[in-house]
Automatic annotation (TrEMBL):
Residues 425-480 form the Mab-21-like HhH/H2TH-like domain. This is Inositol 1,4,5-trisphosphate receptor-interacting protein. The keyword Signal applies. It is a single-pass type I membrane protein. One of its GO terms (molecular function) is protein kinase inhibitor activity. Keywords: Cell membrane, Coiled coil, Glycoprotein, Membrane, Nucleus, Signal, Transmembrane, Transmembrane helix. The keyword tRNA-binding does not apply. It is found in: Cell membrane; Nucleus outer membrane.
């Protein structure tokens, strides 16, 4: 037992002696992997430092992005505020512009002040020194000139119309007899238009203009497409339209017998078996443009000239005169040559009616300019000749007996014709003169067109033309004119269209404009001399000449 206690005491003493806290020794109790642990701790510390740097950079980036977003939001708010202010300013400017434009149009369309000798307001822009100070003959000279040189020269107009109409009736009847009703065009009765049928023809020889409407055979029909019904309208296509050749089975509003199975015991009452089985007509290949279903004006001209030639050869044996084409660029310009050497020209113009209105498409009408030449042979000129004749007739019923409106137009046309023979043709035509007169007719009271106001109204007509020439603007009377009475029955697309400027070529062609202006003032300068020479001697009682009665 004593030995056991000794051993225990020995172990305790040995443990106390070897305890590191009592007798520390360097490197005595340091683990062998201390350096590895230190390296790991240093690497971990470096990672922590890198992570701290990354986090600092991330925080800085987020702060920069936040600042940028705040700046963008501030700029966007400023832009919205400026845009709102700009939109408000643009709206105010647009409203102001519209008010000025409406005021300008109303001011231009207002009744004109009275020229010397009247008591009404005149058209704006005509005040000042008009016509470059040139004076026109007085009322007595104009009255005598009209009686001697215009009324007497046009006295045989009725006989000329009667002769031409009788011959044209026979010619068109022969043309119809040569046509196949199933495959050829259907030619309708002619319509008299222009100066000979409005009673203001002045030029000699007297010239009749006759519209000849035609229609395609079944199952075809013409579908009119007005350029003025499109928005916007190209400037070079204002006043034109196109004519589409459509089959009945291609028309979405037409018959559906060829699109639906009717059954063996059902029959279409419009077409029947015969028409459905009939081979296709050659209208598309004969008169349409290549590769398009639109009517070609050049093809129609060739067809019409060929048809007229065949019809004349059929009836030539009944007449003691010859018939020939007058102008190569006009399909129906014809000339009757008598054996005595005299001749009588007239125009047969192939036209196509626009729907159910009195508006017609014409292939070519050089005496009714509407601006530039058509851009394509499928563009057809819109003619308002029938509406113009109807408007003059309707207006004449409201004017005093013997009104001077047509006398003014005849005298102005006479002066223009004589000036054209002296200096050559210019950009001013009889159609422009008539358009100016139509504008004045709706701006003046009926009482202002009494026979005694001939000199004042002629002076006003010439001043209106001068103003239009200087402004290079003369609007078509019917297209886009709100003053045309609704009783005329114009198509709605024409009434809503933008006004057509007949003087637009003057904006593009400076040489033509300069020549026209010079010719116009030269005409005014020569007017007193021409009227005096053609009037010869003025009677002493010229003031008591009877009033001129004009009946349409």
């Amino acid at each position: 037992m004593a030995l056991g206690l000794f051993r225990v005491c020995l172990v305790v003493v040995t443990a106390i002696i070897n305890h590191p806290l009592l007798f520390p020794r360097e490197n005595a109790t340091v683990p062998e992997n201390e350096e590895e642990i230190i390296r790991k701790m240093q690497a971990h510390q470096e990672k922590l430092q890198l992570e701290q740097l990354r986090l600092e950079e991330e925080v800085a980036r987020l702060a920069a992005e936040k600042e940028a977003l705040e700046q963008v939001a501030e700029e966007g708010q400023q832009q919205n505020e400026s845009r709102t202010a700009w939109d408000l300013w643009s709206t105010l400017c647009m409203i102001l512009f519209l008010v000025i434009e409406v005021w300008r149009q109303d001011h231009q369309d207002a009744p004109s002040p009275e020229c010397p000798g009247g008591d009404e307001d005149e058209l704006p822009g005509l005040e000042g020194a008009p016509l470059r100070g040139l004076t026109l003959p007085n009322k007595g000279t104009l009255d005598h000139f009209y009686e001697r040189c215009i009324r007497g020269a046009t006295a045989d107009a009725a006989r000329t119309r009667e002769f031409v109409e009788g011959f044209v009736d026979d010619l068109l009847e022969a043309l119809r007899s040569l046509c196949n009703r199933d495959t050829d065009m259907e030619v309708e009765d002619f319509i008299g238009v222009d100066s000979m049928y409005e009673n203001w023809q002045v030029d000699r020889p007297l010239l009749c203009d006759l519209f000849v409407p035609f229609m395609p055979p079944e199952p075809y029909h013409f579908h009119a497409e007005l350029c003025c019904s499109r928005h916007p309208v190209p400037l070079d296509r204002q006043g034109y339209g196109q004519i589409k050749v459509v089959r009945a089975d291609e028309d979405p509003l037409g018959c559906i017998c060829d699109k639906t199975k009717l059954g063996e015991d059902m029959l279409c009452l419009l077409h029947g078996k015969k028409s459905l089985a009939r081979p296709g007509c050659e209208v598309e290949t004969l008169l349409c443009a290549r590769g398009a279903p639109y009517l070609d004006a050049m093809q129609v001209m060739k067809w019409f000239q060929t048809a007229l030639t065949r019809a004349w050869h059929r009836i030539a044996h009944k007449y003691e005169f010859d018939l020939a084409f007058g102008q190569l660029d006009s399909p129906g310009s014809l000339k009757i040559r008598f054996r005595s050497g005299k001749f009588m020209p007239f125009n047969l113009i192939p036209v196509i009616q626009c729907d159910d209105s009195d508006l017609y498409f014409v292939s070519h009408l050089p005496r009714e300019p509407s601006g530039d030449a058509p851009a394509s042979s499928t563009d057809w000129l819109l003619s308002f000749a029938v509406y113009e004749r109807q408007f003059l007739r309707m207006t004449s019923k409201a004017l005093p007996e013997g009104a001077c409106h047509l006398s003014c137009l005849q005298i102005a046309s006479f002066l223009l014709s004589k000036q054209s023979r002296l200096t050559g043709p210019s950009g001013l035509s009889n159609y422009h003169l008539k358009t100016a007169l139509l504008h004045l007719l709706v701006s003046r009271r009926p009482a202002d067109w009494e026979a005694g106001q001939l000199d004042a109204r002629l002076h006003e007509l010439l001043r209106f033309l001068e103003k239009s020439l200087l402004e290079k603007k003369l609007h078509h009377f019917f297209i886009g004119n709100r003053k045309v009475p609704n009783t005329m029955g114009l198509p709605e697309a024409v009434r809503r269209a933008e006004p057509l400027n007949l003087f637009r070529p003057f904006v593009l062609q400076r040489s033509l404009y300069r020549k026209t202006v010079d010719s116009f003032y030269e005409m005014l300068k020569n007017a007193p001399v021409l009227i005096s020479e053609y009037s010869l001697h003025i009677p002493s009682d010229h003031a008591s000449l009877p009033p001129k009665a004009v009946v349409l």
